[in-house]
Design brief:
This protein is mostly beta strands and 304 residues long. The chain folds into two domains: 209 residues, Sandwich (Jelly Rolls), CATH 2.60.120; 83 residues, Acetamidase/Formamidase-like domains (Endonuclease I-creI), CATH 3.10.28. The chain is 13% helix and 38% strand. The protein contains three helices and 22 strands. A hairpin with a 4-residue loop joins strand 9 and strand 10. The model has no long low-confidence stretch (mean pLDDT 97). The structure holds calcium ion (CA) (2 copies). The site of one calcium ion (CA) has 7 residues, from strand 17. The site of one calcium ion has 7 residues, from strand 17.
């Protein structure tokens, strides 16, 4: 297994990134990740207004995947996410979905119990639901801050990026250049307060490639659904782009007309909010794998 230490961190997904190591498809890779504060918050007395924002949202990597070339699809299966025992959630004045209501910064400790599968906050016990907030590859165009989501992935804050899911990325550069970080012990759709339960983690992945299968958006395949993840300047734009992308994918994969594809999506596709607090807003369009099997999608995208 290849191990990527957390000191190998980036703050921008750039087309010019140099890999810290190379791994073959199928090889296990363990990424040791900082929390989104780069460890600058270690107690409830540490508030966000006192930290250096040049060091938020680090991603560990990047790792070059052997054989990945522009136009391929890179699949990243999340084999495991092992979170640390202490997570923090914060409020930042002027941030989140109700920014004007947040008068003062606040920090809360969330303790995780991996054995019990729970985390605890203010006397509440919540399910422990580890997820990866930032995961992406080299973008096609200009560099993108690790705090911003886009077609290359990045800060998607999508809670389905969890153990057992596979995230598919368009490969824009030789080696793809995979990096990830910003894990959460728990997060609700929307991430309305502006943070999840931010936690250092050890994330184990394996990768796979579909050669020459261009597709311009990240996708997530869970146990039972296929999702297209879209980030735009507004939720309205993201909803429109995600719907259009799924209708097109249904047409291409199942050979249906536009009308039948749109009606099928209207009946059976869910639009879900991933997050509304980052520089771009993220929506995912989700459909059952029973209706849209992944092997049909993969074959259609590879032009078979
Ligand atoms: Ca995030
Ligand atoms: Ca986060």
């Amino acid at each position: 297994m290849k191990i990527v230490k957390s000191e190998n961190r980036i703050f921008e997904f750039s087309p010019l990134m140099n890999p810290v190591l190379e791994a073959a498809p199928g090889e296990r890779i363990l990424f040791e990740t900082h929390d989104c504060f780069s460890g600058q918050i270690s107690s409830e007395e540490d508030v966000c207004t006192g930290i250096d924002f040049d060091y938020v949202n680090p991603a560990t990597g990047p790792v070059a995947i052997k054989g990945a070339e522009k136009g391929d699809l890179l699949g990243v299966k999340i084999e495991d996410i092992e979170v640390a025992e202490r997570a923090f959630a914060v409020l930042v004045p002027g941030a989140g979905v109700i920014p004007d209501k947040v008068a003062a910064p606040a920090t809360r400790l969330i303790e995780t119990d991996t054995a019990a599968g729970t985390c605890s906050f203010a006397g509440f016990t919540l399910p422990l639901k580890p997820m990866v907030g930032v995961i992406g590859v080299a973008p096609a165009g200009e560099g993108v801050s690790t705090g911003t989501p886009g077609a290359h992935g990045g800060n998607m804050d999508t809670k389905d990026i969890k153990k057992g899911s596979t995230v598919w990325f368009p490969v824009n550069a030789e080696g793809a250049m995979l990096a990830l970080g910003d894990c959460h012990a728990a997060m609700g759709d929307g991430e309305v307060g502006c943070s999840g339960a931010e936690v250092p983690a050890k994330v184990t992945v394996t990768t796979g490639l579909i050669k020459n299968a261009p597709f311009g958006r990240p996708m997530v395949v869970t146990e039972d659904e296929l999702m297209i993840v879209v980030s735009e300047d507004s939720l309205d734009l993201a909803a429109e782009s995600a719907s259009e992308a799924m209708v097109s994918l249904v047409m291409k994969s199942l050979g249906l007309s536009f009308e039948d594809s749109l009606i099928l999506c209207s009946l059976a596709m869910d639009l879900r909010i991933s997050q509304v607090v980052d520089p771009k807003k993220t929506v995912r369009a989700a459909i059952s794998l029973f209706l849209l099997p992944w092997d049909r999608v993969a074959a259609a995208l590879a032009g078979e």
